[in-house]
Each structure stands twice: as structure tokens, then as C-alpha cells.
Amino acid sequence: MSKSLDTSLQQIAKGTTIIFFGVIASMALNFILRVVLVRYTTQEDYGVYSLALTIISMLCIVSTLGLDEGAARYIAYFLGRSDGSGVRKVILGSLALALGASLACTAALFFLSGQVAVFFHSGQLSGALRLISLAIPSMVLIQILTSITRGFKVSIMKVIFNDVMKPLSFLVLLFAVIALGLGLDAVIMAYVASMALTMLAFATFALRWYSGHQGSSRDGEGHVIKDLVRFSIPLLSVNMLLMMMSQATTLMLGFFKTPVEVGKFDIAITMGSLLLTVINSMGYIYTPTASSLYGKNQVEELKRSYIISTKWGYIGTLPILFAFLVFPGLVVDVLFGSRYSDVAIILQVLCLGYIINPLTGPNYHTLISMGKTRLIIESFLANALINLVLGVLLIPTMGVIGAAIAVSISVMVANSLLTVRLYQLLGIHPFTGSYLASIISSLSLLSIFFIGLKYLAIVPSISTAIVCFIAYMAAYAISLILLGAIDREDVMLISAIRLRLQSMPIIGHVL
Fold it and tell me: What is the torsional sign of CA 247, 251, 256, 261?
């Protein structure tokens, strides 16, 4: 194994460990938020809130102008050239462009909220949109600040502010709203306030950090902002296509059905997205690492990094997949109550589609690191069209289940196309013999538990789920050893993560 590969895997392991703990914290806090919101509000109110949040999320994507990826890439580029002037131009330009776009989107939504509400056949939506539109500038600036710190490879700021402070501040304000017995408008204002507080804290901390870490001040290259925009705008197209693949389905549900169905779909999507937790955590650090390897033409090292990241991203996803496929009803009832018991089948359908993401690995991140945005756009455009067509065909007759089928198929198509494109370009794919053995073993055991519980007619309970989960993971670990599905790089990656954990005071003391 080459020194470059060893260093790259250690960087991915180190960064992924930090981000993963941040994502876990964010996931936990956001789940608590969802549970509290669902249990506190009516199904109608929660549906309106979900629809309003979907709409501003789409506008936030537009407002970032693709700079959430572009800023990170150009900051890393100029840092590599010791060009402090170029770094400053990227930072200031990104913030200014994003702020201007976000203010324009805020104004548009505020004044057009009535017309939007008519489109979705919900009078209550108009007031909710006017209030929640005020959160757009703060949300966009948080995204840009996260991208800026990502360019410096400083993961901890994302964890502190985006992953922890943002949901935690909303949760605290939400409890205050509940204690006072206030309604949906107060819930939305708590959300707006939490975004503003997080953005101000993030900006203050990042400014102080940057003032003490400025690089060389030699003259920067010309046309920095022009090049930044030229690189970022195609990425905006990618983000908008991604938005169409996910958010468009929610909007179609709002148009064809009622906010109640939107709320159920939001719960299922939120839970299904947990399958992306590990692979997205890896992708945050994997992208700059892959960019460095590709820039040095170290294709073999890039290939091995991709294979190992994919394998462990998939393995790390298995606990969530097991819970959602084998005990979906139990999970939904415990978290959200029996009112939403029919969400279980929706969750299972989404899992069948979402598992393709960790299964195929960071294909998107690899193509981004190669600068192949056109190929990404082509793949996602095909997907968006499939999602749109299936949504129109299935949602009017099948409702939320139809929406879940449309999303699952579109996600599977997207990742399959990206994987094929990556293989055509560099001959890279993750499906080694050990990885295929890992997949077959995990899915076979999953099928055995799923069918066995149905055949034995065992009533799901928390204790049953825990025992089955432990048995499943133990059987899976044994199968990996027996099949020889653990490579040298696997051992190295585990060791790197273990060393990273030991460096954390509390966890290190335990280990």
C-alpha cells in the first residue's frame, strides 16, 4: 500500500470521525425536534410546516448559486498556491453573492406567498410562508460559511454550528413555545430565530478564527470571482436537479393531496435519509482528499480510497437499514406515535431506494473532485425527469406510497448512472470480491431475519428488536471473517479511527 494511499485514508478516517460524531449529534437533535413537532402539532399543522420548509429549502438551494461547493474548491486551490489574496476574494465574493441572492428570494416569497398558497390549496400556508421566508438569508449564509471552513479542512466548525447549534437552538426555543401553549406561527418564528442566532454565532467565530490563520498576502490571480461563478453555476444546476429529485415529490403531494400526506411523507423521508449519514460524513472529507489524488494523477490510490470508503460506508449503514426494514412499525410508533403507523410501509419502500447510495459509494463526490459537473448534470437530469413523470403518474392514485416509489426509483437510477460514468472515465468501481461477499452476506442475513420474524409471527417489541439486532451484527461480523472479506486497508482504516477516538478525552479514557 503506497504512502499516499495510507495518508489519504488516514485523512478520510480522521475527518470522517469528526464529521460523523457531528452528524450523529445533528441526527439525534433533529430527530428529537421531529418527534416533538409531530407530537405537539396537529397533522394539518405539521403538514403545513413541512410544505413551507420544503419551499424555502428549494429557495435556499437557488440562493447559494452553487457556491456551497465552489467556495470550498477554490479556497483549497488558493491555499495550495499560498495565495492569501485569492482566498480572501473567494470568501468575500461568496458571502456577498449568496446574501444578495437570498434577500431577493426572501422578498419574492414574502410578497408571492398568497399565490403559492392557492397553488397548494391551503389558506394556512400563506401566513406560514411569509414568516418562514425570513429564515432564508441566515440559512444560506450558514451553508456558505460551512463551505468556507470546509475549504480550510476545518471540520469542527461545521459540527459545532451547523450540526449542533442550529437544531439545538431551535429545540430550546420550541420547548419555550410549547410551555407557553403557542401555535404554529410561534413555532415558525422559533425556527427563524434559531437560524439567525446560529448564523451570527458562526460568522463571529469564523471571522475571529480566520483573522488568526491568514496565509500569504501575495497578489492573487485575476478574475477570481468570475472563475468562481463560472465553476459554481453548473453546480447550482446539479443542486437544483437534486432538489427536483427529492423536494419536487413533496410539492406534487401538496398539489395532488393534502398537507396531512405531506407530513407523513416528510417523516418517512427524514428517517430514510438516515441511510445516507455515514456515506455523507465520509464525503465531506473525501472530496478534497480525492481532488488532491486526482490532481497528482494518482489514480490507483484514488481507486483504493474509493473502494474502502464505499465498503465501510455501506457497513456503517447496516444497523439503520436493519431497524427500518425489519422493525419499521415499531420504530415509527415509538418515535411518532400510532397516528403515523402507516408511515412504516412508506419507510420500507424508501429504504429499498436509498440503500443504493452507500452501496455504490461516493461516486458523486469523486466526479466533483474530477470537475466532471457536466456528467453529473446529465445523470441527475435523467433522474429528475423520471421522478417527475413517476410522481405525476403514481401520486394521484397511490398517494404517499406512489411518492415513495417515485423517489426510490429516481435515486437508484441516479446512483447507477453516476457509477457507470465513473467507471467509463477511470475504470473505478467498488465491487471487489470482498465487497461483494460483504453485500451478499449482509442482505442474506437481513432476509433471514425479515422472513423469520414474519413466519414465526413474533410481536415486535423493543427488547425483541435489540436481541435481533445484536444477533444480526454478530452473525454478519462472523460471516466477514469466514469469507475473508476484510482487506489490509480495512484494518488500517479501523486502526486510524480507533486512534482518532482515543485522542478524544472522554472516549479515549474509556478505550
Answer: positive
